[in-house]
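Case study 2.
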Amino acid sequence: MGTNLGTLDRAIRGLGGIILVVAGLFVVKGLIGILLGLVGAVLIFSATVGFCHVYKVLHIRTSKKV
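Prediction:
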């Protein structure tokens, strides 16, 4: 599993994931809050490892590494 996310893509995913986790924990309550938190956690994880399964299926690569 190589990286397929570039630096800018990883930064945007990480920031978006943090925002969603915070919103899920402190702003939105109930099932929607839990779902926001989970989506945010997935975004943070993919930003950390540099790999996105959806990009793999769609043959998208924003990383310059081959």
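Residues 7-27 form the longest helix (21 residues).
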